[in-house]
Write a structure and sequence with these properties.
Helices cover about 70% and strands about 0% of the residues. By secondary structure, the chain is mainly α. It contains five helices and no strands. Helix 1 runs antiparallel to helix 2 and helix 4 (about 90-100) packs across helix 5 (about 110-125).
């Protein structure tokens, strides 16, 4: 998985561009969060030399643990969505892009979890629950 930094940059930029188009995110914020995602992934690669996929998995688990637990405990029972099998790089980019747009809402972790789940479902082609903003 993405053996060079430039390969990883291209993968991240592709994922971020897709989410920008789907969710109407601000271009400067998308650019900043793409750089943020790359810096985080590169940092984790130093912990897992020669294993960028393992590094990405570790990064996602550490950064998105609360979101994944919320998806499992709240979103899945509410919607019946299959929450498994997601792309960790897309999950990382989506989370950072939403985090970059949230401003003061960052201090409402349950809302952040809901927005992540709703955006993830929307971007994966699933419908958000009736009455949700996504």
């Amino acid at each position: 998985l993405a053996p060079t930094t430039e390969d990883r940059r291209r993968l991240i930029e592709r994922a971020c561009a897709r989410f920008q188009e789907l969710l109407g995110l601000q271009a400067d914020s998308v650019r900043n969060q793409a750089e943020h995602a790359l810096a985080l992934w590169e940092s984790f690669i130093t912990r897992h030399p020669g294993a960028p996929g393992v590094a990405l998995g570790d990064l996602c688990w550490q950064l998105l643990r609360s979101q994944y637990q919320w998806l499992e405990r709240v979103w899945q029972p509410l919607t019946g969505d299959d929450i498994g099998g997601g792309d960790p790089l897309e999950d990382l980019c989506l989370y950072l892009l939403l985090w970059g747009e949230m401003g003061n809402l960052r201090f409402c972790p349950e809302l952040g979890c809901f927005l992540f789940a709703a955006a993830r479902a929307h971007c994966r082609g699933r419908k958000a629950p009736a009455g949700s903003p996504a």
